Amino acid sequence: MISMKHAANLAWPAAILLTAAPLFPKTITVSKSGGDFATIQAGLNAASAGDTVLAKPGVYGEKAVFGKSGSQAGGYITLKGEAGAILDGTGLNAGELVSIDSKSYVRVTGLEVRNLKGSGTPIGISVGGGGSHIEILGNHVHNIENATGNAHGIAAYGSTATPISQLIVDGNEIDHCKLGQSESMVLNGNVAGFVVSDNVVHDNDNIGIDFIGFEGTGPGGQDQAREGICRGNRVYNISSAANPTYGGERSADGIYVDGGRDIVIERNIVDNCDIAYEIASEHGGKSTSNITIRNNFASRSWQGNIMAGGYASNKGNADNVVITGNTTYFGNGGEVVLQNNCKGVIIRNNVFFAAAGKAYLENAGSNNTAVTADNNLYFGASTSSPGSWSDAHAVFGNPKLQGAPSNLHLAVGSPAINAGAALDTAMSGTLDIDGEARVAGAKPDLGADEAGGTTGLAGVTEGGAAGWRDAIRGHAEAGYEKESRDGLGRASGMRIKASWRAR
């Protein structure tokens, strides 16, 4: 269960507003000509708490290492790129283009980070060790490559007894990376208290966003990414089909929790990935636990749209998983697929639109216990059976989606409208896929969209990453600190209780 202590950690973003502003902050200009310094590293070396290192447009062929922390009293050390500021790894040895190791009160925003290739583990933006109040905002990371080994676009590896905490990764784009056996974005090990929001991750050859535990990254008892929120991200075209380390196997998740715990995954859109969402543990005897998947869209997965449990019977467990208020469409292997070793799974208030002959709810393995399905809408395959589990209040009928797969919102007259069961907001959340009230009528609607709302994401399709990125990169501008952080805290709706958890 999620304790009140953990709930407090999940709600921390709003409290960041109390951070004192520096008395005499300065802007240090980096430019290819005419600035205070000609290199980003020289600017960072000169910066103190509260200072901003402003990179002017240009291509900077260097690595940037934060050598010091900001402070609560003095403020963040900020590395900010103006439009056209590019950190380019061409010709550099693999490593990290931006490195933050055991530092606190630091921020990276507005940079294009590209073209780091080679052996080892190339990483576009790396956070390591421990530290708190770290923000990665509105950057574009692309072409980070080690096709036959490991690479990451953005990575946070908590490896010390002091966790990486109060971490915000918001409004970034990661694309066209060759990742080997690693992930586009990863939080691994002792990472406790995070918000991963409004990022666009696409056209990479392995996992989009991953929250990992039990790999030996962090110290014993703390080796899990935990107590976080994954919200409002757009993930598409993620597949390992052409990844040389997978031999043609298609198993790359859009959003994956592998050994993490106490994480809410909400209001994301995942399309055309090998697996849209997966909750699992790859380590035998270890559990991913207390995960809520709510108010998301998932479409056109090669395997299942939502999957849980170890991929083999000797792998780990998925305990206390809630799947509620989601809209899924055309999962090739099923809409919800439980693999192995799942315990305590609640499937409620969802819309499942399956292809003819495919599964809605699939028990694909063994040792899956305490599974409850109730009050879901099913369409496209069977007209009488949800699949492997019964549903006492099943609705069978066309949900009347506006324009699947690019638009999974409900149209007027949908039988999903006002058909949901009333749920505690700790389970359902307070906001739908568009950030509007989860209940607009007498009862909540089934699926991720509350049809009484006025905002839609219909225009955001696979070809729309640039428009999406332009919209969300506003978070990284001057108004970000108050507007976005306040919004993150206010919107979280994290009134966590234990009473609803499956036993």
Task: Please write out the topology.
Blueprint: H1 4-10, E1 27-30, H2 40-46, E2 52-55, E3 58-60, E4 64-66, E5 77-81, E6 85-88, E7 96-101, E8 106-109, E9 112-117, E10 123-129, E11 131-137, E12 140-145, E13 152-158, E14 164-170, E15 173-175, E16 185-189, E17 191-197, E18 200-204, E19 209-212, E20 226-231, E21 234-238, E22 253-258, E23 261-266, E24 269-273, E25 275-280, E26 287-294, E27 297-299, E28 304-308, E29 317-324, E30 327-329, E31 334-338, E32 342-348, E33 351-353, E34 361-363, E35 369-374, E36 377-379, E37 395-396, E38 401-403, E39 407-410, H3 425-428, H4 465-472, H5 480-491
Parallel strand pairs: 1-2, 2-5, 3-6, 4-7, 5-8, 6-9, 7-10, 8-11, 9-12, 10-13, 11-14, 12-15, 13-16, 14-17, 15-18, 16-19, 17-20, 18-21, 19-22, 20-23, 21-24, 22-25, 23-26, 24-27, 25-28, 26-29, 27-30, 28-31, 29-32, 30-33, 31-34, 32-35, 33-36, 36-37
Antiparallel strand pairs: 38-39
Provide a descriptive summary of the structure in words:
The protein is mainly beta. The chain has one domain: Pectate Lyase C-like (3 Solenoid). 8% of the residues lie in helices and 39% in strands. The chain contains five helices and 39 strands. The strands form four sheets. A 13-stranded parallel β-sheet has the order 1-2-5-8-11-14-17-20-23-26-29-32-35, with helices on both faces. β38 (401-403) and β39 (407-410) form a beta hairpin. It is globular. 59% of the residues are buried.
